[in-house]
Amino acid sequence: MRFGLFGKAGTRKGGDAKAEAKVATERLKAQVRELLGLPEAAAIAVNEILCADPACPGTETVILVMKPGEKTRAYKLQMAMAEVTAGALAEALGRSRATES
Asked: Which of 38, 53, 56, 95 has the most neighbouring CB atoms within 10 Å?
């Protein structure tokens, strides 16, 4: 019991932070679907991670696009989800698509 009380201290987000993260996630998913013209069958995952590498800028947003029968594509933005603008997202998606061709 003691480990359970202290082992997870500080790992829970408040209700407001969870709601903001959900809104940002859904916004980014919708924008990715629209920008890439993805069908409903395509799955999109959006995650915010902290990079442990000292060379990383800290928080990074990773977007995975999974289309049936195709390889999963990953897009990375060197910023938190809440900071991702439509322009930055379009640039990241376009830059990655240009290198895949």
From this structure: 38
